[in-house]
Amino acid sequence: xxxxxMLMGMPGMTEMLIIAFIVLLLFxxxxxxxxxxGLGKGIKEFNNAKASIETEVKxxxxxxxxxx
Length: 68
Known about the structure:
Blueprint (H helix, E strand, L loop, with lengths): L1 H7 L4 H55 L1
């Protein structure tokens, strides 16, 4: 199954246009900005959480090194 996905590769320009057209048909022109805004907020929250976890891990590693 994994080999099938490796053979398919990344979608080209034609596939991306088809996907964009389908999304536009499903959500409409008026809902699309709201959808993108929500997606942007979700990505921003994810990156903030990731940075917070990285900071906590680095601080914990520093504390462990200081104890040694």
